[in-house]
Amino acid sequence: MIRDITIGQYYPADSRIHKLDPRVKIVCTLLYLISLFTFKSILGYVLATVFLFGCIKLAKVPFKFIVRGLKPIIILLLITVCFNLFLTPGGKTLVHVGFIKITEYGLSTAVYMAIRLIYLIMGSSLMTLTTTPNSLTDGLEKLLHPLNKLHVPVHEISMMMSIALRFIPILLEETDKIMKAQIARGADMESGNLIQKAKAMIPILVPLFVSAFRRANDLAMAMEARCYRGGNGRTKMKPLIYKSADHMAYLITILYVVIAFVVGRYVPFKLWIF
């Protein structure tokens, strides 16, 4: 389960998506995620599916690698679907057994919500898999640069996000090593009730926190030894410059958002009454 978490991981490949400016990928990902909540018909989700799978194809990232990131949220996905399925009234009653009642509106809401969550994770994973943490930091800092006039510490915020993304795979690997070491010493983490399983996690969490604090201290000392003083006056080795491919990506994404919004909201083709 730990190895299935793909947040913060980078998949190197020679693709058009990898070569795009990080600002383009951040903005286009946000536009895509926002568009998922504007649909009111099945055609909108068809367009979202075509757009997402087209980007995955261009990115040359194995589909199974992106799907692997969905495994950690299966429980959350099932809970969300069940809540919408059984607790959403409205429309024709499809199933009514005792206190269990499934309506047409509840079924459509549950399906749409499941699709939204899956595409949210897949879209976000595609951005992190095709962009290095340093590029994400530079792109985010450049996008938020106007907030410097409001005395918002943009560089510091971007640096913290970059460090957090970089530490996620490291801490996951450290957790996996600690778990294997504890199991090799006879620790039982699978059997027992919920409280017993929670107690079994203590021998993992304690050394993990110690390791995390030690790594953070080493990083702080390394930055201080290199006279790091924030972003004021610092130049970039690779400054971000928009190219023709970046403008084309903006245009395609905006065109998709406009078409998907119009089709998904106003074209009268619905799988269920929404």
From TrEMBL:
It is found in: Cell membrane. Keywords: Cell membrane, Membrane, Transmembrane, Transmembrane helix, Transport. It is a multi-pass membrane protein. InterPro entries: ABC/ECF_trnsptr_transmembrane (IPR003339), EcfT (IPR024919). It holds the Pfam family CbiQ. Forms a stable energy-coupling factor (ECF) transporter complex composed of 2 membrane-embedded substrate-binding proteins (S component), 2 ATP-binding proteins (A component) and 2 transmembrane proteins (T component). Belongs to the energy-coupling factor EcfT family. Transmembrane (T) component of an energy-coupling factor (ECF) ABC-transporter complex. Unlike classic ABC transporters this ECF transporter provides the energy necessary to transport a number of different substrates. This is Energy-coupling factor transporter transmembrane protein EcfT. It comes from Coprococcus comes. The lineage of its organism: Bacteria, Bacillati, Bacillota, Clostridia, Lachnospirales. The gene is ecfT_2.
